[in-house]
Amino acid sequence: MSGEKVPVPLPKIIVLDLDYTVWPYWADCHLYPPFSGSGASVRDATNKKVRVYPDIARIIEFCKEHQVPLAVASKSPETDMYNTLLRLYSCTSTSYSSKYTAEVKIIT
Q1: Residue 90 — pLDDT band, cuts 50, 70, 90?
Q2: N or C: less crowded end of the chain, CB within 10 Å?
Q3: Nearest-5° Cα angle at 89, 15 to 25
Q4: Integer Cα distance of 108 and 19 in angstroms
Q5: Does 19 participate in catalysis according to the annotation?
C-alpha cells in the first residue's frame, strides 16, 4: 500500500455498504445462520463459504495505514447476523492480517 498514490486530502471516514459491496450477495437472503469458522473459512449452516470481495482487504489496509476511520452500513434489519459475520470474518484470511481486525458496532 505504501507505494500507492494517496489522495489529498484523505477522507474523514469511509463507509461501506455490506451487501454487494463487502460480499457478493444479500447476506440476509443467501446465507443461513448459525455460522462457523473464522477468516477465509467462515461457512453458513448449509456449509456455503462466506466470501468477501478481494479489494476489501486493500481498503482495510489503506484505512489502517492512513488512520482513516472505516464504517459499515446496511439497510438489513439482521444486525445480529451481520455483526456475527463481520466478527467471524475478522480479516484473518491468507490475504488479510490480524492487525486489521476491527471492532464492529452496528447502530440501528
Answers
A1: low
A2: C
A3: 65
A4: 16
A5: yes
Which residues are bridge partners to 43 per DSSP? 36, 49
Closest CA to 36 of 46, 26, 25, 24: 46
* Residue in this structure with the C-alpha cell 458496532, named with its chain if needed: 105
Rounded distance, CA 77 to CA 2, Å? Answer: 37
Q: Evaluate whether 37 touches 93 at the Cβ level (below 8 Å).
A: no
pTM above 0.85, yes or no: no
Cell 452496528 found at: 106
Q: What share of the chain is helix, strand, coil (3-state, %, to 5)?
A: 30, 10, 60
Question: Contact 34/45 with Cβ under 8 angstroms?
Answer: yes
Whole-number CA gyration radius for the chain: 14
